[in-house]
Amino acid sequence: MNDNALLTVKDLRVSFSAKRGKTVAVKDLSFSLSIGECVALVGESGSGKSVTAMTLLGLTLFNGGQVEQGQITFQRRDGVSVSLLQQSERQWENLRGDQIAMIFQEPMTSLNPLFTVGEQIAEVLRQHRGISNKQAKAQAITLLERVRIPQAETRYAQYPHEISGGMRQRVAIAMALACAPRLLIADEPTTALDVTVQAQILDLIQDIARESQMAVLFITHDMGVVAQVADRVIVMRHGEKVEEQPVASLFSHPQAAYTRQLLDAVPRLGDMRGMASPRGFGEFAPSSKVIQSSLRPLLDVRHLSARFPVHKGLLQRHVANVHAVEDVSFSISAGETLALVGESGSGKSTTGRAVLQLIQAQSGSVELEGQELRTLSGGRLQARRRDMQIIFQDPYAALDPRLRVFDQLAEPLRIHGMVKESELPARLHALLARVELPAEFLTRYPHEMSGGQRQRLCIARALTLAPKIIIADEPVSALDVSIQAQVINLMIELQRDLGLSYLFISHDMAVVERISHRVAVMCRGRIVEIGPRENIFASPQHPYTQALLAAVPEADPARRRTVSPKATQLATPVYPKNHRQEVSHYREVSPGHRVLVNTF
């Protein structure tokens, strides 16, 4: 243990009591953290990472936890070492936000919906720095600019619900960094961010840590991020520390079997070089057959455009349109996966919802097996939707918390009248077995399942009607790395066995390389490059594609990125109501590999 450490944790034990008995969330944990050092705390959900962070902030009691034993010593800015477990609430108010700050994983839980984002940052500055409202506002705007938020003065006056999830996370990061704390606890701070923004935020945290000699406790399941930022790594499992090593040693010579399992589940760019079809993780990973192009694709999208009206003034006149999707064309064959990649605001999710007819496109065609979907309505559209399903990014939000698993899975079958009530149990047992969930889960509620299990349930629900194509909208971005690997393997196996087609929407380029046959890259509502997966990854032609790939953190400390990626401006294009956009023009680089030549 380091005698000169900023933070020292010794024999920490935290438990929670419930009707089912006591659960020990953290068991005899010890570690230290020095000034200017970044220590990564890694492990799967339930390993005790976040409970450790909440205990360091004095918030365990508020969450129903109890510190049974241990010591936590922190060195304040004035050089005095204090016991954090013996601080009064008044003393904690002076420490939190000023000397110890935290970036939470879900920004909506840390932002107050009743106040503008700028006012929430300014409040931290006023409370701990005692400055005027004018000075606090000026510093808050500077902080918003520092975390790469465009039009910072305008964003200052907006509420959390008026900005995107990625932008909310940047606001939370700005708030945590406002007072240049001595210790920053970052709990999955980049999980919801696009790859280029993630790279910029990681560089920003590192720069501020160097400038102010700030220590960082970085909680994550992304081993690429760990390799990029950490000096030391602590691996946790079931509340216990299983391994602690310098980052280079951990990646090159992991000692614990669990650490090796985590590293083996990390998707790495280049792992798929020379492979013609998707391949899962593990020695006996399933693989899909090579897709042969047919005369008529399963799904054919042509010149699709989707716009949203902008209303202004007292009478809320329609003055402009947000061009979310503009002149998008692609096709997907039976049994094929087309990955749609790009940053927030690029139009990926809007494209998927327009294909499913969940939102109305303004122009273009969407044909499923030669039938135009945009002309269907009512019962005809509902009947056709049996062949199209969606898996959402957040499985908890996609499930009804009031219904047991049995009713969640049975509902689509009942709506479409496909199975008699007496046949439901057998059908649902088979569905759960297909996604490797035990039959007793049918009596559970969503909150009684882990994140990975909930996502498997969402996949099972998508399979209930035996669809031909599934739109998968960021289905693994919120999952731990080993659970992510299991879900990817499951999706590839289902494709092999059932002949499913996927439109796989993601910003994780390493996952996309693992699961896709072809890749389409979107930027500002348009596809800027599309082609076979190997062509896109081995020879990207468009500058935006090159920027996306360059920003991916490699799970190798010896190959850390030394140059910050160029900032990309992806503000959603807003044009006057009667504005007419140009038609997209492409240059064919090789068979099936096309690059946009227009500049917008």
UniProtKB/TrEMBL annotation:
Gene3D superfamilies listed in its UniProt record: P-loop containing nucleotide triphosphate hydrolases (3.40.50.300)
* Location relative to the cell: Cell inner membrane
Which SUPFAM superfamilies does the annotation name?
A: P-loop containing nucleoside triphosphate hydrolases
Q: What is its main location?
A: membrane
The UniProt entry lists membrane topology as: Peripheral membrane protein
**Superkingdom:** Bacteria
Task: Report the residue ranges that make up the ABC transporter domain in this protein.
Answer: 9-263, 310-549
What are the GO cellular component annotations? plasma membrane
Q: Keyword set for this entry?
A: ATP-binding, Cell inner membrane, Cell membrane, Hydrolase, Membrane, Nucleotide-binding, Repeat, Translocase, Transport
Molecular function (GO) terms for this protein are: ATP binding; ATP hydrolysis activity
**CDD domains from the UniProt entry:** ABC_NikE_OppD_transporters (cd03257)
Keyword Membrane included in the entry's annotation: yes
Q: Name one GO biological process term.
A: peptide transport
- EC number, UniProt record: 7.4.2.10
Q: Which SMART domains match?
A: AAA
Q: Give the matching InterPro entries.
A: AAA+_ATPase (IPR003593), ABC_transp_ATP-bind (IPR050319), ABC_transporter-like_ATP-bd (IPR003439), ABC_transporter-like_CS (IPR017871), Oligopep_ABC_C (IPR013563), P-loop_NTPase (IPR027417)
- What reaction does this enzyme carry out catalytically? glutathione(out) + ATP + H2O = glutathione(in) + ADP + phosphate + H(+)
Q: Which Pfam families match?
A: ABC_tran (PF00005), oligo_HPY (PF08352)
- Similarity-based family: Belongs to the ABC transporter superfamily. Glutathione importer (TC 3.A.1.5.11) family.
Q: How does it assemble?
A: The complex is composed of two ATP-binding proteins (GsiA), two transmembrane proteins (GsiC and GsiD) and a solute-binding protein (GsiB).
Tell me the function of this protein.
Part of the ABC transporter complex GsiABCD involved in glutathione import. Responsible for energy coupling to the transport system.
What name goes with this protein? Glutathione import ATP-binding protein GsiA
Q: Which organism is it from?
A: Rouxiella silvae
